[in-house]
């Protein structure tokens, strides 16, 4: 069976929880599927250097912004910039199949705004979004999109 790679950053644990549940969903459906998950926060915390990936990956990005409203008064990405630097490292951007954003719908226009900004900046699609830790329906819907991307 094939291999899937997820590159993400998780600060509060919500994105990491989603990645773990998504991995279980995919591995239950596809026996022998290898899922490699890279938490950029752990790389940075452990002082490891960024590296070039040799296989396609899907990125997952929570939204942490300060200032502005995300429409006409701007915004500033905080806490998640290291994921952008990883994607920009070597030719990783060429291997990114797309990004999945997460956030809190209470923030209106800023909901998953960082993922949308990454898609525009790097030229890959926003594959989907989910709120906070995500629901089982989100796992199924996003899992099926990833299956299609990897042709499972």
From TrEMBL:
GO terms for molecular function: FMN binding; oxidoreductase activity, acting on NAD(P)H. It comes from the Bacteria. It holds the Pfam family Flavodoxin_NdrI. The lineage of its organism: Bacteria, Bacillati, Bacillota, Bacilli, Lactobacillales. Residues 4-152 form the Flavodoxin-like domain. This is Putative NrdI-like protein. SUPFAM superfamilies: Flavoproteins (SSF52218). Transmembrane segments: none annotated.
